[in-house]
C-alpha cells in the first residue's frame, strides 16, 4: 500500500528495453480519484542504488541535455525515510 492505494508488481517474461536500461518488473498502483483527459504515462519512477546525498547528480547524469529541455519534463528525487 502506498498513500492508501494497493500496489501490484508484475514480473515480465521478457524485460522491456529503453536505451541501455532493461526493466523486468512493472509496478502499477490501483487507480486513484484523478481523471485524465487522455491515457498515457503520468510519470515513471526509477530506483537507483547509492548514497542519497549524491542521488540528484547521479539521476541527472543519466539524462541527456535534450531530454531535460523538453517541455513537460521534470526530475523529482526522493529517498526512503530512515
Strand and helix map with partners:
Blueprint: E1 7-18, E2 21-29, H1 55-61, H2 65-68
Antiparallel strand pairs: 1-2
Give an account of the 3D structure:
The protein has 82 residues and is α+β, with helices and mostly antiparallel strands. The chain has a domain at 1-29. The protein contains two helices and two strands. Strands 1-2 form a two-stranded antiparallel ribbon. The longest helix has 7 residues, at 55-61. The chain is globular, with a radius of gyration of 15 Å. The mean pLDDT is 79.
In which order are the strands of the major sheet placed? 1-2
Query: In whole angstroms, how far apart are the ends?
Result: 18 Å
Rounded mean pLDDT score: 79
- Which stretches are low in confidence, meaning pLDDT under 50 for 5 or more residues running? none
Structural class: alpha+beta
Oligomerization category of the chains in this entry = single chain
β-sheet strand percentage = 25-35%
The number of helical elements comes to 2
Q: Gyration radius, to the nearest Å?
A: 15 Å
InterPro entries: DUF991_YecM-like, Glyas_Bleomycin-R_OHBP_Dase
Protein name: Protein yecM
Pfam family, one: YecM
Output the keywords.
82 residues; alpha+beta; 2 strands; globular; DUF991_YecM-like; Glyas_Bleomycin-R_OHBP_Dase; Protein yecM
Q: Nutshell version of this structure?
A:
This protein is α+β, with helices and mostly antiparallel strands.
Amino acid at each position: 500500500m502506498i498513500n492508501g492505494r494497493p500496489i501490484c508488481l508484475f514480473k515480465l517474461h521478457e524485460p522491456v528495453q529503453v536505451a541501455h536500461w532493461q526493466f523486468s518488473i512493472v509496478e502499477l498502483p490501483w487507480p486513484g480519484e484523478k481523471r485524465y483527459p487522455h491515457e498515457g504515462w503520468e510519470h515513471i519512477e526509477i530506483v537507483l542504488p547509492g548514497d542519497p546525498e549524491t542521488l540528484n547528480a547521479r539521476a541527472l547524469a543519466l539524462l541527456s541535455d535534450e531530454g531535460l529541455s523538453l517541455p513537460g519534463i521534470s526530475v523529482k528525487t526522493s529517498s526512503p525515510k530512515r
